[in-house]
Amino acid sequence: MSLKTKLVSAITALVMCIAGTVSLVYVSQLLHTSILQSYQNNHLIADQVRFVLQEALETGLKDRTLDPTHPEQLHDLALEAIRNNQPLQALIDSVNRYSLTVYDVNIGDYTGQILLSTNPQNLDKPLPGRPSYDQLVKAGPFDLAQIVFNNSQVYDIVVPLERNGKPFVSVHVGVSTTFLRAVYTPLLYESLNVMGLVLGAALIVALILANFALRPIEEISMQLDYWVTSPESEDNIQEVAAADPAVRVSHQIERIGQRMRDVQEVFSNLKGNLDQLLGNLQDGLLLFTGDNRVVLISEAARRFLHIDPDLIHGLHASEIFDRSTALGKTLRDAFDSHIALIQEEIRTETGGRIQASVHFIHDDETSQGLGALVTLRDLVSVEAIESGLELSSRMSAIGRLTSGVAHEVKNPINAIVVHLELLKNKLEGTSPQAMRHLDIIESEIHRLDRVVQSLVDFSRPVELHLQENDLRIVVSQVGALASDELSTRGVRLLNHLPPKSVIVNSDPDLLKQALLNVILNGAQAMPEGGSLDVVVESDRKTALIRVLDEGVGIPDDIREKIFDLYFTTKSEGSGIGLAMTYRILQLHHGSVEVQSREVRGTEFCLCIPLAYPERTGRYRLQPAGAEPHKGTE
Predict the structure, then answer these.
(1) From the CB of residue 304, how many other CB atoms can be counted at a distance below 10 Å?
(2) What confidence tens digit (pLDDT) does each residue in 249-286 have?
(3) Which of 118, 297, 336, 504 is most exposed by smallest CB count within 10 Å?
(4) Helices marked H in 428-507 — which ranges?
(5) How far is CA 206 from CA 3, 129, 313, in A?
(6) Which among 330, 306, 309, 328 has a CA at the least distance from the CA of 319?
(7) Helices 577-587 & 432-459 angle (0-180, nearest 10)
């Protein structure tokens, strides 16, 4: 079936449905209106008959004496008055003769006997049992059509005449469905004729519309042929050239859709790679179009501009850069003046240092502006990375040096210990003063041996046993290990744990050792006791363990040395704990950060990569001393 045939059939069917529905509604409304109008007319006739009947009774019973003990006397007098009243008889005869829908008129008494009728054969007979005309008025359109067009039936319109509040006589006007059908049939034929005319017009209109509808499709097909034609597709085009226009257009659109899906797949892959690249960049990047509207922004840019990257696409540079901040004002001035900005160092309101660059891109041939590229770099983070690299290099060098020194010193120490024992055995009992000196020498040699052993342990290669661990469990276990020593120092440990698991790949024993070193270091920094808060949180990629004490803080001049091996400010300290913590975090591809203010305490932050960064959300940081979401002491 061709498209033209389908269009003609569809339009004709649609017009037929509409015309048929409208015709059915019209016919049903017409039938209901006829029934209602007949009811009103015939009810008016019944009221007129009742009025004349009432006058006939008043005239016939006037000046008549009635015996209350004989009610049949009243019945006989009423019967005589009704049957002898000529106006009443003339009225019901005229109704029966001239009304188009009235079948008969009967006047009955309260016993159901006919007193007067348009049919003389019905006199003194019981009133016929007929349904009320109200059923026709209340019937639905389908029920009403079935009643009217089925077998003939007579419906009564009853108007009573009461005496002393009780029915005395009643007027019954019978309406025949045959008469109703005779009145309604011409109107029905007229509706069917109109419907036929509408359907004929629909066919003509359908043919015209089909031709007009197919003409644009032919033009579209020609345009699509131009876009989809290629050397490898000429054979397929020739196969469908003689087909229906809709088939050709459908085939061409399908091929264009396939091309678009291929392009979209390539674009999606490129976008995924670009998003991954921008997400791993530490520098903030923003790419603008020629009219200074942003089309690309890296994840790191939100740290500098404090904005949501998903909400600024398409915004103008004037809507992104706020002049109320030093960074926003500098970038806004560069865009307004259209002057490039080359590695401009900007100090923010929070004390940070940002290096900003703005490069405007132009077409070499037309000198037309194509857009702009904004680069933001956190100089503080860069310096911290360089410092960390330097410290890592220094720790590596120290490790190599200590490994060699420990190996060279260990053997002489063992020889000295052996000969010292031999010397003590030879001098035993000869000179107490000499023995005291030998004991001092032995004690110092043992202390030197412990130092050398710590060098060996620190420089020895560590074999990691990685497994998935929940940091909440690790922190709780470390707190239990350190609880006794902390209680002796008057330190109250508070664990602030998130409601969800924070999973990392780590060696649990080494991680516990690193965290225990930091906790004990914080407790030793509070000689008067206090609260030590351990907060576990995470961002999109990294798990954080923050240890906040209320100690005396770390002076600025020694803060850069606290991770150096054997550096300590405590008389009983060895200077190995924090250096070991730094090394353990490096082995886990993490880091240790420290912030301290004198007299206000110190904060150590242990950063470890998450095992499932895409599954973990961000938990808000709680300040030290705040009510924890879930805490243990």
Answers:
(1) 22
(2) 667 777 777 777 877 777 676 666 666 665 556 677 77
(3) 336
(4) 432-459, 471-488
(5) 12, 55, 49
(6) 328
(7) 20
- pTM of this structure: 0.37
User: Binning pLDDT at 50, 70 and 90, where does residue 621 land?
Assistant: very low
- Distance from C-alpha of 454 to C-alpha of 579, rounded to nearest angstrom: 12
Q: In terms of DSSP H, where are the helices of 297-431? A: 301-305, 317-320, 326-337, 379-427
Q: How many CB atoms lie within 10 A of CB 36?
A: 12
Full 3-state SS string of 331-350: HHHHHHHCCCEEEEEEECCC
Tokens of 13: 């069917």
**How far is residue 455 from each of residues 7, 11, 448, 458, measured CA to CA in Å?**
92, 95, 11, 5
Location of structure tokens 């106006």: 87
Across 302-315, average pLDDT: 72
3-state secondary structure of 452: helix
- How many degrees, rounded to 5, is the angle at CA 624 between CA 623 and CA 629? 70
Residue with tokens 């007229």: 190
Question: Tell me, what amino acid is at 165?
Answer: G
Q: Which residue has the tokens 């260990």?
A: 410
Token readout for 63 is 């000046």
pLDDT tens digits, one per residue of 64-102? 666 666 667 777 777 888 888 888 888 888 887 888 888
